[in-house]
Amino acid sequence: MTRTEFWQGNTACAEGALAAGCNFFGGYPITPSTEVAEHMAAKLPKKGGVFIQMEDEIASMASIIGASWAGSRAMTATSGPGFSLMMENIGFAAMTETPCVVVNVQRGGPSTGQPTMSAQGDMMQVRFGSHGDYAIIALCPATVQEMFELTVKAFNLADKYRVPVFLMADETVGHMREKILVPDKVERVSRKPFVPGTPPFRTTDPDLVPGFPQFGTGQHVHVTGLTHDERGYPAATNPGLHMALVKRLVDKIENARYEMADYDIINPDAEQVFVAYGGPVRTVQQVLHDSPNNDIGFLRIRTVWPFPENALAEFRNARRFLIPEMNLGQIAREIERHVKVPVKSIPKLGGELHTPAELVAALEAKQ
Amino acid sequence: MSFDDWYRQDRLPHIYCAGCGNGTIINCTLAAIDQMGWKKEETVFVSGIGCSSRAPGYILTDSLHTTHGRALAFATGVKMANRDLHVVVFTGDGDLAAIGGNHFIHACRRNIDITVVCMNNQIYGMTGGQGSPTTPKGCLSSTTPYGCTETPFDLCELATAAGANYVARWTSYHVKELEKAVKVGLETPGFSFIEALVQCPTAFGRRNKFRQVADHVEYLKVHSLLRAKRDRMLEAGEHIPEDMFVVGELTRRNRPAMGVKP
Amino acid sequence: MKLAIDETRCKGCNLCTKVCPYKIFKEGKRPNRKGIVVPELDRPERCTNCRLRNLYGRQLCGVCQLTCPDQAIHWTEEEPYEPHKVAIEY
Ligand SMILES: Cc1ncc(C[n+]2csc(CCOP(=O)(O)OP(=O)(O)O)c2C)c(N)n1
Ligand code: SF4
Ligand code: SF4
Ligand code: SF4
Ligand SMILES: [Mg+2]
User: Fold this and answer.
1) Residue C34 belongs to a domain with what CATH number?
2) Helices A34-43, A9-19: inter-axial angle, 10-degree rounding
3) CA B93 to ligand 1 centroid distance, Å
4) Lowest mean pLDDT, pick from A37-41, B90-94, C45-49
5) Which domains does chain A have, with CATH numbers?
6) In chain B, which residues have their Cβ closer than 8 Å to the Cβ of C27?
7) Would you say the CB of residue B194 lies under 6 angstroms from ligand 2?
8) Ligand 5 centroid to residue B95 C-alpha, Å
9) pLDDT tens across B60-83, in order?
10) Is there a domain that residue C25 lies in?
11) CA angle, corner A339, sides to A333 and A342, nearest 5?
């Protein structure tokens, strides 16, 4: 059963989190994400959950990691400046394999930039922003419906892979209002159970994910951001061990990228192919809708990291990929790594979506 | 049981230098916890980064060794997510008062039901002896080679002003008193802050004329001024020497607290 | 009870020599195999905890143990006293 609502994207995100069983939110107000926190502040206490406004985004990120180890499905929401502050603890979450969800409703940067305007400038930061090698999962919603659905998915992926998962929304999607079908129930994936008495960071499973030894269950687990052995004990000067640990942390996500890849393919035989995620998806849809010949290809990506490069190969006749992004070409560069044909970045800064005319012009231009 | 049963025996001896006071403070804290009759599975230790923050790694409970300065923010998440857990934080002067200063005052303001034990060696021990926000004026460190000129924080006054329910200060010499203070802290609902002045022979003592570890401990002993005595001196209008610091229970009150087990 | 220093843990800081009211711990003279000068015990049977722990059924004093930063001081149960048979050889 579903019911119909007319919601703002940020409301849909918060409702998706609640539907997914989120019971801890630690956050700090920042435009254009604040409505997520406000909605959680109103709803969580009534459901027996915890909402806490922390003193900054560093603390917000820390609090959800702590809550996650204590057994909560935990989330925070922020935008650029707050996202930058979270980076160190995001690396900690990756290193300690802590499931958690971070929403970034992107605004124009760098610095304070354009607080009320839309952007996709944090797409590389989300992948590489914390120091060292690691891997994360990032999802990009293009509709209010997806704000809800991908938030649910983010929680499930976080628990399944024991990794921070990012909902990389943008101001456009976060603040737009549209019709949404809200299901009564959503799918819920649990964390892999821990086998008592085994080393807490050992795994022999093919998915490379160890069971989760939740605090308070008598496992006496030591969790540290230092390079650690399978017992969780610091072993920071052992080169082989560090290599093996970091490789596993990256491989458990990268190896699963086809499994978790989420994208739509339209007109796979096309020669000219748009690739888009988040807000710009909507302009591409308009261009396709207006196109008389139905011969434009479109790859619409929801899981941007790990990048589903296999989807590009499905456009066998592609002669050119066109990538509209609200940044100076961040994912375009990732796509260049994977294809042999020209990749045309269509960057746009300033806070407004591309217009259909701009994309048509790019399509018609030779270069 | 004794406090020794709370150690991860397979991890000892620990990494601390010979004569480092941190080990003493862990003993006293664990002795207090042992007396509380808490179970290991309901006790969680949280720390940041520094020599002092390595303590949870030697204790046989769930433990979270986090990022520099952020222990209290992580601990807030643990405690609010599961109020049945007893949460104890180990931290250092740099971890708590420099990079973590904001989290410190906000945790006090919230009066969250956590006990914090700060091993104040008045120096950045782990990084080799740089000045910290509690390095006394005139003291030498690698970043104050001509003597520290900044005024140090009084961590206990800070905690009291910011709203903590229980505040006490002792030193690594006063092991019995410290154990008792930690126990009262653990029993008190709300935020409990126990500052333990400790010797760091490697990074502080070496540069500041404490040739022997015992000399530094002796210094801590003779420069401690019992709170009751300090109050009498104040009343009598006597001058309190500047190199003395107050020890004892400094604040004990019952303001509304957050995260207390229902 | 018998007082003992665990040589695998002691780092030779000599804080125990400072805190014991009976001055049972004396600075050691010779480094052990790890190069650490472990304190020596001077008539440890004088220790309050050695004498009275079993009588009171709890830890007494224990200041040295709390102070020892390296968790090297502990007590072990002593063999119960057995009167020696004295074989007299003529
Ligand atoms: C963000 C960050 N900045 C700097 C450091 C380097 N660092 C490690 S420990 C430390 C100082 C610790 O001092 P204190 O908290 O007093 O602990 P102590 O070692 O003295 O016990 C610093 C600056 C770090 N780990 N992380
Ligand atoms: S550097 Fe100082 S604080 Fe760190 S272990 Fe050595 S003595 Fe202790
Ligand atoms: S206090 Fe402990 S480590 Fe130090 S000398 Fe005595 S037994 Fe050894
Ligand atoms: S327990 Fe007390 S009396 Fe006994 S050796 Fe230790 S300090 Fe001395
Ligand atoms: Mg310090």
Assistant:
1) 3.30.70.20
2) 40
3) 9
4) C45-49
5) 2-183 (3.40.50.970), 263-364 (3.40.50.920)
6) none
7) no
8) 7
9) 999 999 999 999 999 999 999 999
10) yes
11) 75
For range A213-226, the mean pLDDT: 98
Question: What is the domain count for chain B?
Answer: 1
Contact B24 C67 (CB under 8 A): yes
Alpha-carbon distance A70 to B96, whole Å? 23
Q: Within chain C, how many helices (H) and strands (E) appear?
A: 3, 4
Short-list A364, A318, A324, CA closest to A341: A318
The fraction of chain B above a pLDDT of 70, given in percent, is 100
A280-290 and A356-364 helices, crossing angle to 10°: 70
Q: What is the pLDDT of residues C46-72, one digit of tens each?
A: 999 999 998 999 989 999 999 999 999
Counted domains in chain C: 1
Instruction: Report CA B74 to chain centroid distance, whole Å.
Output: 17
Asked whether residue C52 is domain-assigned, the answer is yes
| Domain region containing B229 | 18-248
Q: To test the ligand 1 pocket, which listed residue (B46, B95, B116) has its Cβ within 8 A of the most ligand atoms? A: B95
ipTM summary value: 0.97
Q: Which domain holds residue C43?
A: 2-76
Closest residue on chain A to B6 (Cα): A220
Question: What pLDDT does residue C81 have?
Answer: 63
Option in C13, C70, C74 nearest B13 (CB): C70
Question: Which chain C residues are closer than 8 Å to B60 by Cβ?
Answer: none
Q: Which CATH number belongs to the domain containing residue B142 in this structure?
A: 3.40.50.970
How far apart are the CA of B43 and the nearest CA of chain A, in angstroms?
7
Alpha-carbon distance values, A59 to A55, A56, A174, B75, B99 (Å): 6, 5, 23, 10, 12
C40 touches chain B (CB under 8 A): no
pLDDT band at B104 (very low <50, low <70, confident <90, very high): very high
Residue B4 placed within a domain = no
Q: Which atom of ligand 2 is nearest to the CA of B19?
A: 7
Determine the pLDDT at residue A221.
Answer: 98
pLDDT digits (tens, 9 = 90+) for A250-291: 999 999 999 999 999 999 999 999 999 999 999 999 999 999
Rounded distance, CA B80 to CA B44, Å?
A: 13
Q: Is the pTM value of this prediction over 0.95?
A: yes
Query: What's the mean per-residue pLDDT of chain B?
Result: 97
Atom 6 in ligand 1: which residue has the minimum CA distance?
B127
Contact check, Cβ <8 Å, A220/B41: yes
Q: Give the list of residues 6+ apart from residue B238 with CB closer than 8 angstroms, or none.
A: none
